Amino acid sequence: NLQNDPENSVLQVEFCRRIEMLLFYGVKTRAFKWKSESQDVWDLLKEISPNHIIEDIILLKSVKTDIGRIRAWIRVTVNESTLQSYIQLLTDQKITRKFYESNAVFNNRESVEQIVKLVAIITERPAKLFSTVIR
User: Fold this and answer.
1) How much of the chain is helix, strand and coil, in % rounded to 5?
2) What is the pLDDT at residue 69?
3) 119 HSE (CA, 13 A, CB side)
4) Where on the phi/psi map is residue 26: left (φ > 0), alpha (ψ -120 to 50), or beta?
5) What is the pLDDT of residues 16-54, one digit of tens each?
6) Cα separation of 15 and 56, whole Å?
7) What interhelical angle do 6-24 and 66-79 show, nearest 10?
8) Phi, psi dihedral angles at 9 (to 5 degrees)
9) DSSP, res 100
């Protein structure tokens, strides 16, 4: 059973952690010093996501922080096989200028297209990918 496979869990967690790192890389620090990077990334995800996803995440009683909401969002979009479409939205210059510094990976269209392709391959066949560890 893939759900109970420890190797599968480690790979899934690592994949989600890498997506989280991408979302944070080059995020703008807003003029408001009291706002954290987590709040900025959560604001970005709220802007690009449908209301029902955001509402479902906000209603999770076990998730109380912005970083927790970001992690929940990643897992929801992986489970729904929609992560690649949201990453594709980050090629929109209006969004990237608002949330990311000029050196952010999401400001490089070619990089984003490569990320979208990789995410699509990985999330298309998660059982196969996450059930095998290359040694």
Assistant:
1) 70, 0, 30
2) 95
3) 25
4) left
5) 999 999 999 988 876 555 567 778 899 999 999 999 999
6) 22
7) 120
8) -60, -45
9) B
Q: Which two tokens stand for residue 70?
A: 């970001």
What are the structure tokens assigned to 55, written together?
């509402």
Task: Tell me how far apart the alpha carbons of residues 12 and 48 are, in angstroms, rounded to a whole number.
Answer: 23
Distance of alpha carbon 74 from alpha carbon 122, whole angstroms: 14
pTM: 0.80
* Cα angle: 67, vertex 124, 54; to 5 degrees: 30
Tell me the C-alpha distance between 72 and 77, whole Å.
9
The number of residues making up the chain comes to: 135
The answer to whether 50 and 44 are in contact (CB under 8 A) is no
